[in-house]
Write a structure and sequence with these properties.
The complex is a heterotrimer of chains A (about 625), B (about 250) and C (about 240). Chain B is α+β, with helices and mostly antiparallel strands. Chain B has helices spanning about 35-45, 120-125, 145-155, 165-170, 175-185, 195-210, 220-225, 230-245, and strands spanning about 5-10, 20-25, 70, 75, 95-100, 110, 115. Chain C has helices at about 15-40, 45-55, 60-90, 110-115, 115-135, 160-165, 170-195, 205-230, and strands spanning about 150, 155. Classes of the chains: A alpha+beta (about 625), B alpha+beta (about 250), C mainly alpha (about 240). Chains B and C meet through strand 4, helix 6, helix 7 and helix 8 of B and helix 1, helix 3 and helix 7 of C.
Chain lengths: ~625, ~250, ~240
């Protein structure tokens, strides 16, 4: 049984109690402590900047050519905070409650409450940094509403909230880089975690320009390396998003929690062909006015405009009369899958459903629709070459966030002392499903307001051995990384890395995607394992290890995805219930709705990697002292 | 459709580069430009050749990683579009496309089409921020910001740092990038206390990075994927002169 | 950190360099405008032209001060322009094999790309022009009885005679006209660019100033070309 180290006391006082009692590092001593921060997204950027401001000696690493490019930048919608500026009854409690309910009661109460508490400070901090949030004519901040909440609590900067918040963190980092408090290592990929006497003390990185392997030593390591959605090959993640840093840490002792929890977003632009490299998300606000349908007859190949009303199936409106097209993300996604499985999908690939604005345009006029969704329609047309004012959009669900990640306790510390995990890379705050506008909130909360306290508590309370990069543990980890690279390059088989990745993605999407079955998951485990063996026998990686070599980078990442994918399937197999983003076909109501099993599965599953390669499933019981577990219904 | 590509290949910063000609026999009009390059690379790997190195990440036009000069235009022929969102339907069967890296002394070539844009990071580190430590912020609504100022500030803040402004500029000037950040922060009350110091340091850093001077060709605005107006540059000059006057 | 093409020393700031070219450029534009208007006096007759020229010289110290100022403006404009052009070439040592403008909001034209060329040609012309007229027969250091005239009892230089002689030769006349077209091209980009360099522009103003800049350049060139052609073809 894992100990979450949740502080004592009533829910509302836990964080204050923690702050009142945690150990502090003497200001003069902070300079003597080196903190390695891997990743420069919202979590890593905000953590690096804040720790450097406090006086720690920070080394920061990112795989992109600049810390400003981390994938947080792609978040569109907004960031939640219970400021209650609109006076519509919002409170910290409501934000907490919505988030925990949205997560289908599979997250830790104390973590989520702390998240809701510090959210307000994030908005203050971002505004002070010069983040140009949307404002009203009076000059004060504007809010809008977002899925899963009955209040307007979302702050936004056009459709580019992630970008603006990330630039805020990046600028705060840049200030510390200019001041010499952060040493920045861009185009560096973490390949291994170095543990000495059971503590995380360093990392091995590869310089992506020269191929050199580097050793970095520190007193603590912060992994802020994002999610693993690219295990599906096609996702809304950036092409370089990967699990490698987290996975290598897992193999050095960090538990991986709830890997099967993935979020699939219903309104993405569908795949157009085999060459497709990624998927693009469109705001789900489109479902406010668009109607989702497919032809009734699987063999119907008519143009959508020629299909009469009687031959159309508005399946969401039919199955969910009260919520209709506005059912939550997971429900909308699953239904799209089931109609395409029936062969009623549309478009060339038959893997899409229509999102039709014809009725809305008739009712409200083209101008109103343009005012509401003009930029989204433009984006759709740019990518597909079709005009959504005239033809219905084709949409399909796509993987876009992973709620699972490395297991952390209340202090964001993993099962390896000194290894902290922040943002999407950890598992902590979203349970089995994440609500809109809360990913940005979590990343920044972890980096700006949580880690400065919990890291200090660790450093002040831990006896550190004086070690350098000449310690044998560094040599061992470096050798492991180097030989792995050599191995990848030495196979020189027939199949490219992309081909393997695409195949893995197909297995994951078919069997570990929107709906899962026992048989399918078992099949996936076998297939992934076979594919992994084939990979190491037959992959072809071009070029040399000594220069910028994108396909070598990919090869290492795909090798890790081939291991993670199997663990995801195993985790999904063991979780015999349906909750949030995890839907097991065996566990549904007669009407096809998800059925949780609170009695047996109100826990976190955290997987340990053993030396012999086996995986052991540990659990952390989730105790709900403040909220009542209920069933979601959208009929 | 069949596309012929003339691609700049260069093994390292100090090695002379050259054009190589390749054929992509199975390009598809629905592909993005970068997906077409992916297809080329798969082909090259199968033939035992080194694939073309190019930068990319989000492939939805927001991270600013990608950027190549396509037939003489930074990010290619479609305005307000990063090359990851350019689609092959803008080309026709049999077309020949010339692809070159961003060319500027401030952006040394790393390999093939990959360049080193770290100069931009150093320009921001010289002053492109508001000096506010975490935790020191007042309530977000304590300082009202006129909506027009906030909106204009946002226009400049949309810069994705891709470097197309430098690549497209006949002088390889980094003025639009630098000016966009200076303008974004100068328009907000939060950025006001440091505006003079910021303008001076950022411009001085820009000058030391080997970029050219702005001759007001306004080419940068035309190639900017976010369409940032060169009005930012006029504003940067005002900010700078204000700083110099003291 | 790259510093290979870094200019150091006095006025190396990219902003100040452009402010200098902008201020001097606008000043010189006003000068050529005045010069052009003055030239039109020839259409009233040689006497009016000579009287106008004599009036300027008779300003004495003020005239010399203006000349010195003009000289300084020219020097600053030329030296800074050359420095900018050299820096810009250094900023892109390897040229693109294919390069074209993206159009639209871009104001990149043959005029904007050739500022240094039109500028240098104008500089060469300026020297020839000064040697031909200001320091030509009857001018300072080149006293000549043949180029003196007396109008209303005042003895003055017969500049009109010199002008008439010069513009009898076809190569000189048409060469002059061609140079004035270069001036027009230089001003096509120069006027609006100077305003932008001085930070005086905003989006609503830009198209107007850009259009006015073009008109001003064309007007000045037309004014300058009118007189030599009129002389050459015998209208005056």
């Amino acid at each position: 049984m894992l100990d979450s180290k949740t502080p004592a006391g009533p829910l509302k006082e836990k964080w204050d109690n923690y702050k009142n009692s945690c150990k502090l590092v003497n200001p003069a001593n902070k300079r003597k402590h080196t903190v390695l921060v891997v990743g420069t997204g919202l979590a890593g950027g905000s953590a690096a900047a804040t720790l450097a401001e406090l006086g720690y000696n920070v080394k920061s690493f990112c795989i992109q050519d600049s810390p400003r490019r981390a994938h947080s930048i792609a978040a569109q919608g907004g960031i939640n905070a219970a400021k209650n500026y609109p006076n519509d009854g919002d409170t910290v409690w409501r934000l907490f409650y919505d988030t925990i309910k949205g997560g289908d009661y599979r997250s830790r109460e104390a973590n989520v409450y702390r998240l809701a508490q510090v959210a307000n400070n994030i908005i203050d901090q971002a505004v002070a940094q010069g983040v140009p949030f949307a404002r009203e004519y009076g000059g004060l901040l504007d809010n809008r509403s977002f899925g899963g909440a009955q209040v307007s609590r979302t702050f936004y900067a056009r459709g580019q909230t992630g970008q603006q918040l990330l630039l805020g963190a990046y600028q705060a980092m840049s200030r510390q880089i200019g001041a010499g408090n952060i040493e920045m290592f861009a185009r560096q990929e973490m390949l291994d975690l170095v543990t000495i006497n059971g503590k995380a003390r360093g990392i091995i990185t590869r310089n992506l320009v020269t191929g050199e392997i580097e050793r970095h030593v520190g007193d603590a390591v912060l992994l802020c390396t994002g999610g693993y959605g690219n295990v599906y090959y096609l996702s809304t993640n950036a092409k370089n998003s990967n699990v490698t840093a987290a996975w290598r840490a897992h193999k050095r002792g960090a538990y991986f929690a709830n890997p099967c929890y993935t979020q699939i977003h219903p309104t993405c632009i569908p795949v157009s062909g085999d060459y497709q490299s990624k998927l693009t998300l469109m705001s789900e606000s489109l479902r406010n006015d668009g109607r989702v349908w497919v032809p009734k007859d699987p063999g119907d190949t008519r143009s959508p405009r020629d299909i009469p009303e009687d031959d159309r199936d508005y399946y969401l409106e039919r199955r969910y009369p009260s919520f209709g097209n506005l059912v939550p993300r997971d429900v909308a996604s699953r239904n799209a899958k089931s109609v395409t499985d029936e062969g009623r999908g549309v478009g060339e690939t038959k893997l899409a459903v229509y999102l039709d604005f014809a009725d809305a345009i008739r009712r409200l006029g083209k101008d109103t629709i343009e005012a509401r969704y003009g930029n989204l329609f433009e984006m759709y047309e740019r990518i597909t070459g079709e005009n959504p004012y005239e033809m219905p959009m084709r949409i399909f669900p796509a993987v876009h966030y992973t709620m699972g990640g490395l297991w952390v306790d209340y202090e964001l510390q993993s099962s390896v002392p000194g290894l902290f995990v922040l943002g999407e890379a950890n598992f902590s705050d979203h349970g089995a499903n994440r609500l809109g506008a809360s990913a940005l909130m979590q990343g920044l909360s972890d980096g700006y307001f949580v880690i400065p306290y919990t890291l200090g508590n660790y450093i002040a309370g831990t006896e550190m051995d004086a070690v350098g990069t000449d310690h044998p543990a560094f040599a061992e980890a470096e050798d492991a990384s180097t030989s792995r690279i050599d191995q990848l390059l030495s196979v020189q088989g027939d199949k490219t890395v992309v081909e393997f990745h695409r195949e893995l993605g197909k297995i994951m999407w078919d069997e570990v995607g929107m709906s899962r079955t026992k048989e399918g998951l078992q099949r996936a485990i076998d297939q992934i394992s076979a594919l992994r063996d084939e990979f190491w026998q037959n992959v072809r990686v071009p070029g040399e290890p000594t220069h910028h070599n994108k396909y070598l980078e990919f090869a290492g990442r795909v090798a890790d995805f081939l291991e993670l994918g199997e663990l995801m399937a195993r985790d999904a197999l063991e979780r015999e219930e349906s909750c949030g983003g995890h839907f097991r076909e065996e566990y549904q109501s007669p009407e096809g709705e998800a059925m949780r099993n609170d009695e047996d599965f109100t826990h976190v599953a955290a997987w340990e990697h053993r030396e012999d390669g086996s995986k052991v499933r540990h659990t952390e019981d989730l105790e709900f002292e403040n909220v009542q577990l209920t069933t979601r219904s959208y009929k | 459709m069949i596309i012929t590509l003339k691609v700049w290949r260069q093994e390292g910063p100090d090695v002379p580069g050259r054009f190589e000609t390749y054929k992509v026999p199975d390009a598809n009009p629905h592909m993005s430009f970068l997906e077409m390059l992916d297809v080329l690379n798969e082909q090259l790997i199968k033939e035992g050749k080194d694939p073309v190195e190019f930068d990319y990440d989000c492939r939805e036009g927001i991270c600013g990683s990608c950027g190549v000069v396509i037939d003489g235009q930074a990010h290619g022929p479609q305005q307000r579009t990063a090359c990851c969102q350019l689609h092959m339907r803008h080309y026709k069967d049999g077309d020949t496309i010339v692809i070159e890296p961003w060319r500027a002394e401030g952006f040394p070539i790393i390999r093939d089409l990959v360049v080193d844009r770290s100069a931009f990071d150093r320009i921001v580190a010289a002053g492109g921020y508001v000096s506010v430590n975490t935790g020191a912020a007042p309530d977000a609504n304590s300082i009202p910001v006129p909506k027009d100022d906030a909106d204009l500030s946002m226009d400049y803040a949309t810069c994705i740092g891709c470097g197309a402004c430098v690549a497209g500029c006949p002088n390889a000037s980094a003025s639009l990038f630098t000016a966009a950040k200076i303008s974004h922060l100068a328009l907000l009350p939060q950025g006001d206390p440091e505006r003079e110091r910021r303008a001076k340091s950022m411009v001085d850093q820009m000058a030391s990075e080997g970029f050219g001077d702005c001759s007001n060709h306004a080419e940068c605005e035309a190639v900017c994927p976010k369409g940032i107006s060169i009005d930012a540059i006029a504003r940067m000059r005002r900010e700078y002169m204000r700083a110099v006057r003291g | 950190m790259s510093s290979s093409s870094t200019e150091s020393g006095w006025l190396s700031s990219p902003i100040l360099k452009k402010v200098i070219t902008g201020v001097t450029g606008l000043g010189l534009t006003l000068f050529v405008l005045g010069h052009m208007v003055g030239n039109l006096a020839m259409f009233t007759g040689p006497d009016a032209y000579n009287q106008y020229a004599h009036f300027l010289v008779s300003l004495g110290p003020l005239f010399y001060a203006i000349e010195l100022g003009l000289l300084a403006f020219f020097l600053f404009h030329i030296v800074t322009g050359i420095r900018i052009a050299i820096g810009n070439r250094r900023a892109r040592n390897t040229r693109y094999s294919v390069y074209k403008t993206a159009g639209g909001p871009s104001r990149q034209t043959a005029a904007s790309r050739s500022m240094i060329i039109t500028g240098l040609l104008l500089m060469v012309f300026l020297v020839i022009h000064l040697l031909s007229f200001k320091f030509g027969p009857g001018g300072p250091g080149n006293a000549s009885q043949a180029y003196l005239t007396t109008i209303d009892g005042v003895e003055m230089r017969d500049l009109a005679k010199l002008v008439h002689e010069k513009f009898q030769t076809p190569w000189y006349t048409f060469g002059y006209a061609a140079i004035m077209l270069l001036l027009m091209i230089h001003l096509r980009h120069g006027v609006w660019s100077a305003m932008q360099s001085l930070g005086a522009m905003r989006p609503s103003l830009t198209p107007i100033v850009y259009a006015l800049g073009g008109l001003l350049g064309a007007g000045i060139a037309a004014g300058f070309i009118a007189m030599p052609l009129a002389i050459y073809f015998g209208f005056i």
